[in-house]
């Protein structure tokens, strides 16, 4: 479980997070949403230990690590995997070398020990037999899976997704959402999705927090984004709610119900 209690953090004299309270329950996908500049990126840096909070508790696996040394935090960081917006693979390295990058190049483990780990991970990601290919030979979806393999090779307990659908077309967004769901089911991880893509959040998240002006608001289940009477939630989701309403009216005008079924047709 990941828990933040009263977290304050910022840069120099500028405080960005003003007492964040947030819980990401074990084996649940928790979404953190908010507009640009709301504090989402700063919050992610605090969770990963790249930015030390000035106050509050950061509890990972039952231990408060908010003020521990970098050496001590590095041990806890191994429990977490960060998935960036882009696949960020090394084009000059093979798939195997990309997936095994950290244990081989950073930890200096013998390649003979790393390669079986890589092959096992590729099998689990339904990517067998591609270890000698290069990223340029893969589809966009396969590159995303390879990038996940590089993160998952340590078998982290917590997966953090940093705006994973930014800049993608609707088909690819659906594919990424499918991967997130699959990772939860197959690897039994706790997932934290940092995003402003409401459609993706509604698709994969089980619990949502809205970050605005450095404060995290517990929205609850994703569908509350469309029904909440809270002024801040309603304001953030206003355009999306309008799109849903426009779709509903269009379907009604064409003789369909909200599920796309012709009215009067037997269910």
Your description of this structure?
With 267 residues, the chain is an alpha/beta fold. It has eleven helices and ten strands. It has helices at residues 40-48, 70-77, 95-99, 101-106, 111-124, 140-152, 170-187, 198-204, 224-227, 231-236, 238-253; strands spanning 2-11, 14-24, 29-33, 55-60, 63-64, 80-83, 158-162, 190-195, 207-212, 215-220. The strands form two sheets. A six-stranded mixed sheet has the order 6-7-8-3-9-10, sandwiched between helices. Helix 7 links the parallel strand 7 and strand 8. Helix 6 runs parallel beside helix 7 (170-187). The longest helix has 18 residues, at 170-187. It starts with a strand and ends in a 14-residue tail after the last helix.
Please compute the radius of gyration using only Cα atoms: 21 Å
Average pLDDT works out at 88
Helix content: 25-40%
- Gross morphology is flat
Question: Numbering strands along the chain, what is their spatial order in the largest sheet?
Answer: 6-7-8-3-9-10
How far the N terminus sits from the C terminus, by CA atoms, comes to: 42 Å
Instruction: Count all strands and give the number.
Output: 10
- The total count of helices amounts to 11
Strand content: 15-25%
- Main sheet overview: 6 strands, mixed
Order of helices and strands: EEEHEEHEHHHHEHEHEEHHH
| pLDDT < 50 stretches | none
Based on secondary structure, the structural category is alpha/beta
What distinguishing features does this structure have?
alpha/beta, six-stranded mixed β-sheet, about 270 residues, four-stranded antiparallel β-sheet
Short description:
With 267 residues, this protein is of the alpha/beta class. It is 40% helix and 23% strand. Helix 6 packs parallel to helix 7 (170-187).
């Amino acid at each position: 479980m990941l828990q933040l209690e009263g977290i304050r953090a910022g840069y120099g004299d500028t405080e960005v997070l003003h007492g964040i309270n947030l819980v990401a329950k074990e084996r649940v996908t928790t979404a953190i949403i908010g507009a640009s500049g709301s504090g989402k990126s700063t919050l992610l840096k605090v969770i990963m230990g790249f930015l030390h909070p000035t106050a509050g508790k950061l509890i990972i696996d039952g231990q408060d690590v908010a003020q521990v040394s970098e050496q001590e935090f590095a041990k806890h960081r191994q429990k977490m995997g960060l998935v960036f917006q882009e696949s960020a693979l090394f084009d000059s390295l093979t798939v195997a070398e990309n997936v095994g990058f950290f244990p081989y190049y950073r930890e200096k483990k013998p390649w003979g020990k790393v390669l079986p780990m890589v092959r096992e991970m590729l099998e689990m990601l339904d990517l067998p037999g591609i270890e000698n290919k290069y990223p340029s030979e893969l589809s966009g979806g396969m590159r995303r899976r390879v990038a996940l393999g590089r993160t998952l090779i340590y078998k982290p307990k917590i997966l953090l997704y940093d705006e994973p659908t930014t800049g993608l077309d609707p088909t690819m967004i659906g594919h990424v959402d499918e991967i997130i769901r699959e990772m939860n089911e197959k690897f039994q991880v706790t997932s934290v999705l940092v995003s402003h893509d409401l459609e993706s959040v509604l698709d994969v998240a089980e619990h949502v927090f809205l970050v605005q002006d450095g404060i995290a608001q517990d929205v609850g289940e994703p569908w509350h984004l469309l029904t909440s009477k809270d002024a801040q939630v309603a304001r953030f989701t206003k355009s999306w709610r309008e799109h849903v309403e426009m779709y509903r009216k269009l379907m009604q005008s064409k003789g369909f119900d909200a599920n796309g079924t012709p009215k009067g047709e037997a269910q």
